[in-house]
Amino acid sequence: MSRFFLSAIFVALSTSAFAADAGKYQAVLGDCAGCHGKDLSGGVTLMTPFGKLVAPNITPDKDTGIGNYTADDFRAAMKTGVAPGGKRLYPAMPYPYYANMSDGDVAVLWSYLKTVKPVKNSVDINQLHFPFNLRIVMAGWNALFFDAKPQALEPGKSAAWNRGAYLVNGAAHCGACHSPKNMFGADKGPLTGAVLAGWYAPDLTSDKNAGLGRWSTADIAEYLQTGRNAHSIASGPMAEAVENSTSQMSDTDLNAVAVYLKDLPASRGNGGAATGVETQMKAGKDGYDINCAACHGRDGKGNALFPALAGNPNVLQVRDDTIARVVLAGTRAVSTAKAPTAPAMPSLGWKLSNQQAADILTYVRNTWGNAAPAVSAETVERVRGELHGGS
């Protein structure tokens, strides 16, 4: 065998290995494990307003996965939302965002997925209500809401800004959770916050109350890398996103995302003036001092382990689902390589009535310079019902 032929084989293998390694990073950027599981064999249930979708098996198993896909099949699914055989995908698989990915990034992702261990796992994907379970309706959805044209570079912006825009609006698909939806489940606003599976994915614009206006680019990058910063701690679905995706992103990409988010225009209005009733505020202060001050401080500034509540955008969101959920059910921060300690917030639902929880939250949302709508006992009651399997 000639030296030239051996060299050609080595180059081909090296190129393939390089592509798979680059593709693994694309899987991190896209948080593939968040929906498809750490082994990518699927089975994770996604709750939507239209019923249940179960994430499919995307390992190279030929019977139950995507082992029979070609590179062109994979590209079409990622960038047009159409799988082999003309099968139309639902945007829970965020192809409207993946359409912004370059063909090169999609290609290396495919190279990586071909190296994943095949797992035989048949998934009943489509559990949507009629008529949404009929995939043909997606043809109309795409015609109305899907623009397959890739995102263009903004010549007046920095390289970091453009990279951040590419990530946020592409592989990272941040708007899938953080952008409000219309009645058909399509985005209707740029990253101004949305309800997701009982949590409120907060405003990511530069709004100084509910958004990231008080955060520096370093604050944003730190939060994405470690799951916490001086302002907040990730919980719920965001903690999972940090664990599976953002904590594994490069420093350069984290900074790029932060630069882009800091430049988003303020949403203006996702916070608002204080509306807490005086009696709620008084009762809420007493409840806060008893139940919360030991960790978060009487001044609301928190400490090294527990986040500040003063100026915390999670506290100031116009929707109060998430903070009510955290008070009732508790939560645990994500453990990451650079912040391995995972402090927890205990459940207080067992000891607080709906009104007591509402009073404390109203106090927190309107103290230390905070200003946000009051929380009602009815809201807390609804969230409590959702936590216990109610409607």
Descriptive report:
- The structure is a single chain.
- With 391 residues, the chain is mostly helical.
- The protein has 2 domains: 13-145; 159-391, Cytochrome c-like domain (Cytochrome Bc1 Complex, Chain D, domain 2), CATH 1.10.760.10.
- 42% of the residues lie in helices and 6% in strands.
- It contains 17 helices and 9 strands.
- It has helices spanning 3-29, 32-36, 71-80, 95-98, 103-113, 137-145, 159-168, 175-178, 217-226, 236-244, 251-262, 278-291, 293-296, 313-316, 321-329, 354-365, 377-387; strands spanning 45-48, 51-54, 82-83, 87-88, 126-128, 194-196, 199-201, 331-332, 344-345.
- The chain has a 3-stranded antiparallel beta sheet, with no helix packed on it. A two-stranded antiparallel sheet has the order 3-4.
- A hairpin with a 3-residue loop joins β3 and β4 (87-88).
- α1 (3-29) crosses α5 (103-113).
- It starts with a helix and ends with a helix.
- The model is unreliable at 271-276 (pLDDT under 50).
What structural category do the secondary elements indicate?
A: mainly alpha
With strands numbered from the N-terminus, the spatial order across the biggest sheet is 1-2-5
CATH superfamily of the largest domain: Cytochrome c-like domain
Strand residue content: 5-15%
> Spans of 5+ residues with little confidence (pLDDT < 50)?
271-276
- Main beta sheet strand tally, sense and closure: 3 strands, antiparallel
| String of helices and strands | HHEEHEEHHEHHHEEHHHHHHHEEHH
Beta-strand segment tally = 9
Q: Give the oligomer, counting copies of the same chain as homo and different chains as hetero.
A: single chain
The CATH top-level class label of the largest domain: Mainly Alpha
Integer-rounded radius of gyration: 23 Å
Summed up, the helix count is 17
Shape, principal axes of CA atoms: globular
**Cα separation of the termini:** 70 Å
CATH architecture of the largest domain: Orthogonal Bundle
Overall pLDDT level: 87
Which percent range fits the helix content?
40-55%
